[in-house]
């Protein structure tokens, strides 16, 4: 049996997928979680073979959950998302995610992907893969991305500076360059673009 943990903050989707996967003879759903924090706790406790994680969850998103788990236990992760942005795919794959597919796929396809991932393979939805190959590269430097990542929840310039061991003036300079590169007026707008493209 392939032991599967499901995590999705939308209860109807989570319970429907769980019910459909339970119809498969070789899949056992061992946990249904409503957010990323619960998914991490339950996965560490139950050590499932595969975690099927929604990308957009409160607290920790699916990619963050997968990254945390890949460093702690042998479980493999599949991320599903309603908005399959190419940049998110790159972030997911670099975080150890073994499967990536849109929520528009049926439960039978999710089951097939779970089997492939449990067998040690990787799976990326072909449409998402094609979009990722055609997508533009991130124009920001790693340090500029660090500034956005650390300040993504509205942290002050001083807080970002302390977290990154930088001078506040250096952080302000980075923010100015980021705004210019992305053609936006505020740091919040820059964070939104970076998140939508999967850069942070």
Automatic annotation (TrEMBL):
SMART domains, sorted: HTH_LUXR, REC
TM spans (from-to): none
Pfam families found in the cross-reference section: GerE, Response_reg
Gene3D superfamilies xref list: 3.40.50.2300
Source organism, top-level taxon: Bacteria
All copies of domain Response regulatory, residue ranges: 3-118
InterPro entries: CheY-like_superfamily, Sig_transdc_resp-reg_C-effctor, Sig_transdc_resp-reg_receiver, Tscrpt_reg_LuxR_C, WalR-like
Keywords attached to this entry: DNA-binding, Phosphoprotein
Residue positions, PTM 4-aspartylphosphate: 54
Domain HTH luxR-type: 133-198
PANTHER family: TRANSCRIPTIONAL REGULATORY PROTEIN DESR, TWO-COMPONENT RESPONSE REGULATOR
Record's protein name: Response regulator transcription factor
Provenance organism: Microbacterium gilvum
The organism's taxonomic lineage, starting at the top: Bacteria, Bacillati, Actinomycetota, Actinomycetes, Micrococcales
